Predict the 3D structure of the following.
Amino acid sequence: MLSLLWRAFFINKDFDYYKKRLSSQRIFATHTGSNLLMDYKNSAIRKAAITGVGGFVPEDKLTNADLEKMVDTNDEWIVSRTGIKERRILKDPSKGTSFMAIKAAEDLIQKKQVDPTSIDMLIVATITPDMPVAATAAYVASEIGATNAFAYDLQAACSGFLYAMSTASAMISSGHYKKVMVIGADKMSSIVNYADRSTCIIFGDGAGAVLFEATQNDFGWEDEYLRSDGSGRMFLNIKAGGSLYPTSEETFNNGLHNLHQDGKSVFKYAVSEMANATEEILKRNNIDHEKLDYLVPHQANKRILDAIARRINLPEEKIMKNIEYYGNTTAATLPLLLFDYESKLKPGDKLIFAAFGGGFTWGAAYLTWAY
Ligand code: UT7
């Protein structure tokens, strides 16, 4: 009886949610252990692991010197305020986000010798689909030969890849599917206004892909903390082209099809929510800055990364970074970090992903590296 009361008292929102999600499979989440998500050992559920990574960035570079010729800015301001020196741009106007997503997927398939017909499901996280309707993911799946997969796009801005990994992990853990490919890809140059110095200096193009399968060695997706708050949508958005502001001469003349960001406000939320989510994941999994191998944070601004590192007392070398060379590639950022750091990773390494983006959307996730 006492134990029941104790449980009722301490049950929180997360536990309730996961309990509901898992009850249909007769699996019990433990609240007392370090892992709130689930007790894999005492269940039939499989842990999902990342078993392959691929990536692609276009060859063309847009440097700070190039931007100095386009808007009233300078290298010193951009580097000191953001940490960005250059970004990659997919210049060919006949190529959309799918071009990069396909390249990243093919890189993974070739490196890991994956039979594309064995892929069950494919998600493309993006805010720059090739077209507003007709999922980019479906086109990517067809082009890479994933003829047995169902595929759809997921839109959660800079948190898109994090959310998509959570979906993939759940699909594998449930036993519904065996191989799920998750791609983060964005052609940000297609929505940025290159006359707006507050946004055009930040964003770049790219794509990254990972494969999720059931773990073979007990390493994989361990825990997640995901949140959203729609009251933040006025701070970071593309207003027009949807059902609220359909495309019209007026929306076009007012530049409402371009990305708008109130940088200062987004910055404040990004620092506090990414740090909160990371701390929550660290705390409930009993990981401290010494046990953590890498923080894998969304690359929006080097000052955001520094602020989070200070808050969780993490040395610089444990923070994955590529902002200097790619800028902010939105949904492609997290998989491109894995792509760049893959050779440094070893089985059992503890990684914490953290992201914040338009919506607002944000969260953190804990994964142990499987290979
Ligand atoms: O990825 C999704 C989530 N996004 C983020 O997390 C982005 C978060 N925000 C940021 O990274 C930063 O807010 C920015 C990089 C966008 C802007 O940096 P900031 O330090 O917040 O600058 P600010 O907007 O407060 O502007 C400071 C000054 C202003 O001039 P005044 O009014 O003080 O005279 C701006 O007009 O800097 C000016 N400024 C620039 N100056 C030179 C703004 N952009 C530029 C520029 N070059 N490119």
About this structure: The radius of gyration is 20 Å. The pocket of oxa(dethia)-CoA is lined by residues 73, 77, 81-82, 158, 197-198, 201-202, 263-264, 266-267, 270, 300-301, 304, 328, 356-357 (CB under 6 Å). The chain has a mean pLDDT of 90.
